[in-house]
Structure prediction request, 197 residues.
Amino acid sequence: PMMELAPLARAFTRAESPLYFVGGSVRNALLGLPYDDLDVTGAASSQQAVDLARSAGGKASIRDTEMGTVDIAVGELALEYTPFRRESYGPGGGHRPQQVIFTHRMEEDALRRDFTVNALYADVLTGEVADPLGGLADLNARRLRSCQAPMETLGDDGARILRMVRFACQLGFSVDPALYGAAKAMVGNLGDVAMER
Prediction:
């Protein structure tokens, strides 16, 4: 999708807020695997992202003001943009954060993510990969490791335990022992996960 997204990426870069692919698309591309979801992120606010996308000929609308989520369409491609952010969660395994604070720092955004292999950022314009938490080493070792202390990462969202199992099975990755131990200790949080998830 790089060619089709070049005008969009150039608009963000000109505004000094480079646009990054993040998450599964970066992980799978580096592993040589197919990917579906195109999640993008950057320092631009939601409204800036809408304005920049429209200035580049795309369609864009804010879907969730609290989380900052923006739906962007460029030709046949559908992107989900969220600004860099920090999050804090209440007790239990519910998914929605109690507090969201937007930031300009990729490192802070990376820490809110689940596993280091999902906290890799690829510049949409240049393809250059940014790795704030050592995810490339974990990708090469085929290992799942949490972005923060395992109890904190899994405590934020009970579904991350299921994601851990899914990624380990689908990708053939090992699970960091501390992360596995935390998953066993926090398995009760699965009860807080909405059934549709």
